[in-house]
Q: What sequence folds into this?
C-alpha cells in the first residue's frame, strides 16, 4: 500500500547543531502534516503544508513541501535539549488516507 | 479545553482476557480515530468515525478487535480475546472536521501489555 518514507530513523546531535528529517512519498500528496512526540508522550501537531514549494517557519523550525508535493523536510536550527523527541510526517494521499511516516527520533547531547 | 481523554493509561492483562479502551474526544469534534503504535510498525490507523458512524475499519487487525461510538462524547476499542502481539500503545485522536487532512488532536494513549 501507499507508504511515506521518513529518514533518518535516528539522529544524535550535540546541542547547538542543526537537525533535518526528510519525508518522501511515491505519489503526490494533497498536504503534509508534521507532529512531535516527546518520550512517553503523544503526537502533537506542529504544522500543515498544502501548497507546492511551500516553506513555513516556527522559530528555529523550518518546514518545506517539495515542488512536486512528494517530499517534505523539517529543519531545526541550533538544537536544544527541549527538541528531544520523535518527529513524524503524515501525508494525505489522493484517496483520502492520512499516512504517517515511522518518524525520526532525535536525541540531543547537552 | 480538556483535550482528548483516554483511559486507562496503562493496562496489563493476561492472554485471553478481554480488554476495553476508552476515549472521550474534544467536545464539538465530529471525527474520531483509533491508532496503534509499535516500534516495528509505527502509527497505524485502526478505525475512524464521522458523526459516530464507522467510516473505515480496514485497519482493524482481525475479528478480535471491535470499536464502537455510541454517542459524540464516547468511544471504546475492545480486544477479545487479547494476545501478546496486541501489546502496544493505543491512541485515540479527534478532529473538528470530516476532512481527512485536518489537524489531529491525540489523547495521552493507553499502554497495553498482554502477558
A:
Amino acid at each position: 500500500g501507499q507508504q511515506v518514507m521518513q529518514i533518518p530513523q535516528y539522529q544524535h546531535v550535540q546541542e547547538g547543531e542543526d537537525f533535518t528529517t526528510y519525508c518522501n512519498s511515491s505519489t503526490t500528496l494533497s498536504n503534509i502534516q508534521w507532529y512531535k512526540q516527546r518520550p512517553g508522550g503523544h503526537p502533537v501537531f506542529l504544522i500543515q503544508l498544502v501548497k507546492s514549494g511551500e516553506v513555513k517557519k516556527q522559530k528555529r523550525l523550518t518546514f518545506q513541501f517539495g515542488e512536486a508535493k512528494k517530499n517534505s523536510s523539517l529543519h531545526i536550527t541550533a538544537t536544544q535539549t527541549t527538541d528531544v523527541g520523535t518527529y513524524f510526517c503524515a501525508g494525505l494521499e489522493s484517496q483520502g488516507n492520512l499516512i504517517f511516516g515511522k518518524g525520526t527520533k532525535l536525541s540531543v547531547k547537552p | 479545553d480538556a483535550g482528548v481523554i483516554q483511559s486507562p493509561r496503562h493496562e496489563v492483562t493476561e492472554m485471553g482476557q478481554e480488554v476495553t479502551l476508552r476515549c472521550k474526544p474534544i467536545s464539538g469534534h465530529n471525527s474520531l480515530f483509533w491508532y496503534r503504535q509499535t516500534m516495528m510498525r509505527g502509527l497505524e490507523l485502526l478505525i475512524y468515525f464521522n458523526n459516530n458512524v464507522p467510516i473505515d475499519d480496514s485497519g482493524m487487525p482481525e475479528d478480535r478487535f471491535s470499536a464502537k461510538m455510541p454517542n459524540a462524547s464516547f468511544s471504546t476499542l475492545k480486544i477479545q480475546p487479547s494476545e501478546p502481539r496486541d501489546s502496544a500503545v493505543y491512541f485515540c485522536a479527534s478532529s473538528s472536521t470530516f476532512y481527512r487532512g485536518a489537524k489531529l488532536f491525540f489523547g495521552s494513549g493507553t499502554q497495553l501489555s498482554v502477558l
